[in-house]
Each structure stands twice: as C-alpha cells, then as structure tokens.
Amino acid sequence: MPVMSPNFNKNYGNFAVFVVKYTPCGTIYCVIETNPRKGKGMNSTRVELDRKWQHILWKCMLITYLCVLVIEMGSRIFWKGTVEKGLFGCIVGDIIAIAVVSVLILVITGYRLKKKPDEVSRNTWGMCIMYVAMFGCVALVHYGMPFIALLPFVAVIGTTVFADNTLTGVSSLLALVFSCISQLLLYNLAEWKIKRFGANIMLSLVVAVGVYVMTSMCNRHTNELIQAINDIHVKQLNLLSELKKEPLTGLYNRKTFDESLQAQVRNCNDVGAVAVLAMFDIDHFKNVNDTYGHSNGDTVIKVLCSIIKKKISDYGLGFRYGGEEFAVLFTGIDEEKVLSIVEDIRTEFRCYYFQFMRKDGLTVSCGIARYRNNEKGEDWFNRTDEALYKAKETGRNKTVISDR
Predict the structure, then answer these.
(1) What is the CA radius of gyration of the chain?
(2) Residue 333 phi/psi, 5° resolution?
(3) How many CB atoms lie within 10 A of CB 122?
C-alpha cells in the first residue's frame, strides 16, 4: 500500500493534491482533500513558523536595544555619570559602544531576513547567536556590576522557540564566555580577589548549566509535541487515503480516479512530466458471474487487482473504474515500458488457475494512451477508452495503443 507523504502538496483550483507515491521514474499524485486551505505539509508549516518567529525575535532584539538605550540614558543623566568617566565619558564609552554593536547586529540580521528568507536554518542560528552577543555587549560594558554578567543567559531562553538543543548548547556556551570575560574585567590584576572571582565564575557556570538543562527540557517537550502532531497528521492522511479506496480490491475508487486524472494533467502541463493511462476490462466477465456466482466473480476481480498492484508498484497508481473495469496512471515512463508492464499483467492473468473453474484461460483486454501536452483530461481518458474498445472489438485478450 502506498504511504501518504505529509511533506509535499500542490494546490490546483479546488484540489489539494498530495503525493501518494514516490517512484524511481516520477511522482504519482492523488487528490485526498478538496479544501486547499487544509493542504499543507508538516515540514512546510514548521518552516513557515520558524520564519514567523525569526521576525518576532528580531522585533524582540529591537525592543531590547531601545530599552537598554533608554535605561542607559536615564541612568547617566540621573547620576550625572560616574566619578571616573563623567557624563560625557559615559555617553561616549558606554552608550555609543552598545548602540553601535546593537545597530550593527540589527542591520545584519534584518538584512538576512529580508534578502535571504529561504535560508531558514542559517537565519535561525544567526538570530540567536546575535541576540546572545547583544546581551554580551551590555555585560562587557557594565562589568562593574556583577549581576549584569548573567544577562547573556536571558537570550538563551529565546532558543526554545526553535526547539534545537544544539543551538541552545552553543548559545549557552557563548553566554558563559561573555559572562566569564565580564568577571575577568571586574576583577582586574590590581584588585585580584581569587576567591570572589572563583565564586562568581562558579555562579555563571551553574546558571549556564541550569539554563541549558531547563531550555533543553522545553525543547524536548516541543519536539515531542511536534512529533505527536506529525504522527496524527500522517494517520489522518492514511485514513483519507483508505477512504478513497474501493474495499474489495484495495484500489482507489472512481471519484479519486477522476480527481487524480485532473491532478496528473496539471502536473504534466506544469513540469512536462510523462504520463500514460491504461484501462483494463475482464473479458466475458458477465458469464463468470452467471455461471459461477458473484462471490467467485469477486475472486476473479481480486486476482486481477492483486496482479495489477504487484506489477505497477514502482510505476503507477491503480483504480477501480467500475465493475470489471480498472485504470492505472503511469508516470515517468513511456508507452513501450507501459506496454511491457500491461502485457505482463495480461499474460499472468490469462495463466492464472482458478480453483472454482478448475481451469485457467480468463482473459483481459487493455487500452493505452499517452498524455499529450495541453490535452484535456476527458480527451485523454476517451482516447484510452477507445483503445480498450478497439481491443475488445478485434478479438479481446490483447492490448491496443491509441494512435490518435
């Protein structure tokens, strides 16, 4: 049974077209949802969310910068600068230094978000590392206040948005580096107090480990939620796929065939894919039902469908069109290869020994038509059906390729 993939979708008009099967020769499409607003894969949704939160994080960085700037200006004006530097020295040495670094970080990250939005992973890493660096700059400038040395760890918490433990670990390590450098600047060579310095370094290390552990737990919880949602999504898609199937044969039903035919037509027109439609009809099937009963007739149908599914597993998708008629959509292979597969199906079915008949010899007729550029789906189907009709009119138990 083909497994529904949640990682790819196309929207065509009123159809949400999902990949049903990836094959060595191409991709088979099947319509399983008629509301295009619901046809988004989990991977694409995750990428969109990451992009959204990258912009939110950038706004947080901007707000952080503005808050730091206001606090810096207000504190310097209120206290008239420090005794050592004075008001002007504080403005030049502290405020401008923080402003230059912060503006540079905002410009670089904002440029990447605008110009290179597709590089989601790199942008995520860049945003988080730069956020730590912004807080680290404040910690280095204000090394005289020991508690400020722990400020870079605040930015590490922001990595929980992206649920990446590697990113969290690198950000925590970088925050620890900024914190340690700030401590080194505080306890300079002239006022070296090894015990107090060591205690503060240990405090920074404990905070780093604590932040990393708690953030990693949040990341794990988020990833487990995402995986659970993804599993539910896959189960729903598989359920939708099963609902589109005909219960007796396991092939897709008539409605799904009509929708999938149109989806394949659009795919051929969009990307120039090669597609071939084949139709099968069991010869003299009414005689089987009348002579041996409908339950044995069902056995004949199941045998043919089993052969079809086995032979087309790597190349196409099978449908029960109605009664004893079946269709197969092939993609990525030409008519010659399709003819070879169809002939294998026809030959194996003819040689199958049915116990209830105590003989073999049931046959099937086939029609084949390759899709032509800009051809309507109805015309493609009609050409295939005409080829099938010609096969039945000219003796049955044969395959005819459409020449129109």
Answers:
(1) 34
(2) -130, 150
(3) 11
| Distance, CA of 199 to chain centre | 48
Residue type, 138: V
> In three state form, how does the secondary structure of the chain look?
CCCCCCCCEEEECCEEEEEEEEECCEEEEEEEECCHHHCCCHHHHHHHHHHHHHHHHHHHHHHHHHHHHHHHHHHHHHHCCECCCHHHHHHHHHHHHHHHHHHHHHHHHHHHHHHCCCCHHHHHHHHHHHHHHHHHHHHHHCCCCHHHHHCHHHHHHHHHHCCCHHHHHHHHHHHHHHHHHHHHHHCCHHHCCHHHHHHHHHHHHHHHHHHHHHHHHHHHHHHHHHHHHHHHHHHHHHHHHHHCECCCCCCECHHHHHHHHHHHHHHHHHHCCCEEEEEEEECCHHHHHHHHCHHHHHHHHHHHHHHHHHHHCCCEEEEEEECCEEEEEEECCCHHHHHHHHHHHHHHHHHCCECCCCECCCCEEEEEEECCCCCCHHHHHHHHHHHHHHHHHCCCCCEEECCC
Per-residue pLDDT tens over the stretch 163-215: 899 999 999 999 989 888 887 777 664 455 655 666 677 777 888 888 888 88
Structure tokens at 214: 């708690």
Assigned token pair, 279: 């139709």
Q: Which two tokens stand for residue 204?
A: 């920074």
Report the interhelical angle of 42-79 vs 96-115 (nearest 10°). Answer: 160
Pick from 236, 209, 284: which is nearest to 40 by CA? 236
What's the angle, vertex CA 63, arms to CA 110 and CA 132, rounded to 5? Answer: 70
* CB contact at 8 A, 100 and 141: no
Q: Which two tokens stand for residue 130?
A: 């730069």
* Placement of tokens 């007729």 in the chain: 365
Q: Look at strands 399-401 and 364-370 and give their pairing.
A: parallel
- State pLDDT tens for residues 114-161: 888 888 889 999 989 999 998 888 888 876 666 778 888 888 988 888
- What angle do the packed helices 96-115 and 120-141 form, to 10 degrees? 180
CA distances (Å), origin 280, targets 290, 341, 345: 21, 12, 10
Residue 155, Cβ density class (10 Å: 0-12 exposed, 13-18 middle, ≥19 buried):
buried
